[in-house]
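Lab notebook, design round three. We kept the backbone fixed and only want residue identities now. Task for the bench partner: fill in a sequence for the structure below.
Input structure tokens:
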């Protein structure tokens, strides 16, 4: 990593955090004063933050000469971009402006942690990761994580404000949370399948019971349980939303908690610090 790139990346990250902070504060101010113009402005500022985040990813990609998804630091730059994709899509489809402060908040937290522990140097990919599956597998997984984050936020809102209804569609937070889970579970499933095919090509087995693979399976089963109790058992309301919220804990642990497991210390699947 050159000094010039390091300075440029730090400047872009500072600009990104500031932009997300502005989006969050504008939304809060608009909600507190009931000024819709401020809330709408927060969405535009959030979209600007997404563009800045895109510049961060492109700049890192060019500097590394590869997709910047290898280390924990790099994924902490990429995950906010995925959250931006999910938030802007849900706004475009359902006008869910209320996601903006939550999405900006989680982006700020992730970026702040990344800036506190930046990569000292750009890490080369080991041979096993130099595969055509690397980019689609990681991107699909992180898009699913972003969609499931949105579902968790909407599920919490459904628990807090169960009677709220959208002026545009008449649907409540619960319906939107369920739709986000459906999309997130679909992309999560695709990620698992691509990972299995990749594993077969790289190591000769579709599934090696690596700790990260095991927790990916736990996450998949958690959301399968949610879909089962809702679509087969007929659970709706607070019970279903509570399961949706708890399921996201598996996503968080799979992504950030694996380093706590001694058995995962030698895993290629666990992000390097």
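Proposed sequence:
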């Amino acid at each position: 990593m050159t000094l010039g790139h390091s300075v440029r990346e730090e400047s872009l990250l500072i600009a990104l955090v500031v932009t997300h902070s502005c989006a969050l504060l504008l939304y809060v101010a608009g909600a507190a004063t009931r000024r819709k113009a401020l809330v709408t402005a927060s969405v535009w500022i959030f979209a600007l933050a997404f563009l800045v985040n895109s510049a961060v990813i492109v700049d890192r990609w060019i500097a590394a000469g590869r997709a910047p998804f290898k280390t924990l630091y790099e994924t902490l730059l990429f995950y906010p971009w995925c959250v931006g994709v999910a938030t802007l899509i849900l706004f475009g489809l359902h006008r869910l402006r209320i996601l903006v402060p939550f999405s900006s908040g989680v982006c700020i937290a992730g970026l702040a942690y990344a800036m506190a522990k930046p990569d000292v140097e750009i890490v080369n990919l080991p041979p096993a990761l130099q595969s055509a599956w690397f980019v689609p597998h990681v991107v699909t997984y992180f898009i699913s994580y972003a969609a499931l984050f949105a579902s968790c936020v909407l599920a919490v809102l459904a628990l807090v404000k169960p009677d709220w209804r959208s002026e545009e569609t008449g649907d409540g937070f619960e319906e939107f949370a369920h739709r986000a889970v459906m999309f997130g579970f679909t992309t999560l499933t695709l990620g698992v399948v691509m990972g299995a095919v990749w594993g077969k090509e790289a190591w000769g087995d579709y599934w090696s019971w690596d700790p990260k693979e095991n927790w990916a399976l736990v996450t998949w089963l958690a959301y399968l349980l949610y879909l089962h109790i809702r679509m087969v058992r007929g659970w709706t309301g607070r019970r279903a939303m509570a399961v949706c919220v708890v399921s996201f804990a598996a996503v968080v642990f799979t992504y950030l908690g694996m380093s706590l497991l001694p058995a995962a210390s030698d895993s290629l699947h666990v992000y390097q610090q």
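Keep this in mind before ordering anything: Residues 1-68+97-122 form one domain.
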